[in-house]
Structures are given as structure tokens and as C-alpha cells.
Amino acid sequence: MKEKKSKIDVQGFEIAVVNQSNSDYISLTDIAKQKNAESTGLVIAHWLSTKFTIEFMGLWEQMHNKNFNVTEFRNIKNEAGSNGFILSSKQWIDKTNAIGLTSSAGRYGGTFAHKDIAFEFASWISAEFKLYLIKEFQRLKEEENSRLSLEWNLNRTLSKLNYRIHTDAIKEHIIPKNITKDQANFVYASEADVLNVALFGKTAKQWREENKSSEGNIRDYATIEQLLVLANIESMNAEFIRMEIPQKERLLKLNQIAILQLKSITANDLFTKLKE
């Protein structure tokens, strides 16, 4: 699974956070810079070599890692506290098959730990630093959850909208017919009716006569995609007017544009895939 990387600022120190398999890992290397920016690996090794840390790490692994090598853990635990005992993150991972830590070399590498372990390490560095780390980490998670919630609601709304467009597309009345010569020759008193005829094939008055029992007007009963195209041809008509194109020519152009745009919308397979 691809890692999702983020950065948080804790008392002036930039701390990397990555999400792996739905678990958050925080850079111990970045945290260690608060204590010694030149020897972060040594700082981590000193912390990892304490008996308390080893016991904590072993307990965490046994709770979360079914493949944890308990035998090697006990061997390491027995050695802890002896003269010259130093345990690096790589040794811990290799010997015990641990998953709470990850370690990689290189410019963009370093040691990362599951957030539970990272907070313990930060506490060893500084109680104050740990509190600020937790605060900034929580802020990051709240922002991510807010974005996810917004994206989910937006995607859900778009899915419903697009599904409506698709279902409406199968109705024969959506795609306007080519206007007749008589319609093209008719001089409409209102520019709004030019748009109505181009898109719906009839004037507002004609629609009212055909729908005497309906309230509102022709546009109140338009489908979503019709309203989208209406907005497009309305702006185009304004531009055509500025270009001093005669009304008859504008009507013909707008009618053809409306037909092409609605065909394009209703033929788009994307709308059928978003029903959920």
C-alpha cells in the first residue's frame, strides 16, 4: 500500500508522519533532533536499550504482531542493562520481526514508529515535547478527517446528481429536435424565448398552453442537464448579440449547440458508473 506522508511542526521541529496500512507512523529520527540533531541514531539506540523501553516494546508487539519472535525478545530483555549493551532499531526489527518500528537508510530514510511507540519516545525526550507532539498530531488527524468527510459528502452528492442526469438522459424529450424553418423565421419578442426554442423547441407561452394545469414555467420543469446547457447557451447568446449576429442565425446556432451538448452529456459512460 502506498504511503501517505504528512508533516507537522512541533516547537519548531518538522516531524514526518506516514500512514501505512491504515496505521500512523511518526519519525523517531525527526523527534530525536530535539535532543541531538547530529546523532539521531544514537539517541534512538540509547532509548531503545533501556529495560523499560524493551519491556514496553515487547508488550506492544505481542498485542499487535502475531509473528513477533518472543524467544528473541526474551534474550534481548535478559541482556538489557549489561555493560556496553546497545540496541539499534534495525537490530530490534531483524531479531524480533517487529512491526512497531520501521527503519531505512538514505536521505529520505530514517526510523519511524507506530504512534503509540513514538509518543513514548517523545516522553523520554521531553514531557513538554510529547504534549506538543500529541497536540499537533491530533490537529493533523482532525484536518484529515474533515477533508475526508467533505470529500465523501461531495462525492456522494455528485454521484446522486450524475445518476439523475443519466436516468433523465434516456427520456426522449431531453434532446431537442432541430427547429423548423417557420420557427427560425419567427421573430421572437423576448430573447429568453430564443433560448427556450433552441433548447426546448417551444416558447414559454406555448408551454403554458400545453401545460395549463402545471404551476411555474417551462424552466421549472427542466432537467439538470438541460439547465446546464441553458446556462451555456445563454452566455453564448450574449456573445452572439455582441457580435451583431441576426436573431435567426443565433437561434439556429444555439439549437445545434444545445443538441450537441446534450448528446455529449447523456452519452458519457461516466454517469452510469457513479450510481452508488
Question: Overview of this structure, please?
Answer:
By secondary structure, the chain is an alpha+beta fold. It has 2 domains: 4-147, no CATH class; 181-273, no CATH class. The chain is 60% helix and 11% strand. It has a 5-stranded antiparallel β-sheet with strand order 1-2-3-5-4. A hairpin with a 2-residue loop joins strand 2 and strand 3 (23-27). The longest helix is centred in the middle third of the chain and has 43 residues, at 127-169. The model is unreliable at 169-174 and 271-276 (pLDDT under 50). This is KilA-N domain-containing protein. Residues 4-140 form the KilA-N domain. It holds the Pfam family KilA-N.
